[in-house]
Amino acid sequence: MQCVFDKCYDAVKCANDNKGFGFYYSEKQNPDLSIHIHDCCEVLLCISGGKNFLINDKVYDVNDGDLFIINQFEAHKITFDPDKKFCRYVMQVHPEFLYSQSSAQTDLSHCFYTRGGDVSHKLMLSQEERETLVGYIKRLEAEESYGDDIIKKITATQFLILINSAFVSQIGAEKSSGSEAIKKAMDYINLNFSQELSLQKIAENSYISVNQLCRLFNKYCGTTVAKYITSRRITEAKKLLSSGRNVTDTAMLCGFEDYANFIRVFKKHVGVTPGKYNAEK
Fold it and tell me: Over pLDDT 90: what percentage of the chain?
């Protein structure tokens, strides 16, 4: 089971196709020069050569050994020092993997969705923590003769546990009924995105009011409920189109009752129409 690549595209594809994770390592001076988002959450560990990292409306200095945590709604762009080798490890992880590996006591999505004015995307790790993370990635590069998929899933989970532990120690756990309510809301959306969704339905299934839902969603996720639903639907639409589904069926299966609206929204988020995206795949 290959899960470590030398290109970002392959890591993202692996994470999306398997609703799991993918890693890549690069020393190339070719980060995406445009501000962009992914369908997955991202962890970037800078080994050397980073300069600045723009994430939403924040700009961070990038030092050797810094680690950055980004969710799928946060637009970002990294720059590098042209006089140094830009080395970095990146993990792309599907939100469903985070939820599937979490427990009532340990929420592995915590570091990705806890946001606020004082919450930084940047973690400063000890040398031991950095070496442990790199060791996990090296382990993921190896192919085991038996139980390879399980071993890799365990290793990726250990990687996420260490990051969340560092996040909690630096930022604070902030465990509250609010974050639990948002997890319920996201679970409900992920299970029902193909159906008609309303704020009232989502709030009722999360045992909070509509006003609380909107406020907490913005606090913990850094986005609105509507934008999250749209992102979830577009992500699924890209998968269906890539698998050969036609545009009409895809619109219906992803909860778009208005065909014309699906075309418009898809083009806005992906850059091309569903028909062209389908043809290119």
Answer: 43
> Phi and psi for 66 in degrees, rounded to 5?
-70, 145
State what percent of residues in the chain have pLDDT above 70. 92
Sign of torsion over alpha carbons 255, 257, 262, 263 = positive
∠ at Cα 224 (256, 236), nearest 5°? 35
Residue 173 confidence (pLDDT) above 90: no
Strand-pair category, 66-70 with 41-48:
antiparallel
pTM: 0.65
Specify the amino acid at residue 280: E
CATH number of domain containing 247: 1.10.10.60
Say how many domains are in the chain. Answer: 2
**What DSSP state is assigned to residue 135?**
H
Q: Give CA torsion, residues 247, 253, 254, 255, to 10 deg.
A: 110
Which of 110, 143, 171 terminates a domain? The answer is 171
CATH number of the domain bearing residue 33: 2.60.120.280
Residue 89 CA: distances (Å) to CA of 12, 22, 172, 264: 13, 11, 25, 35
List residues bridging with 78 in a β-sheet: 53
Residue 78 to residue 50: CA distance in whole angstroms: 8
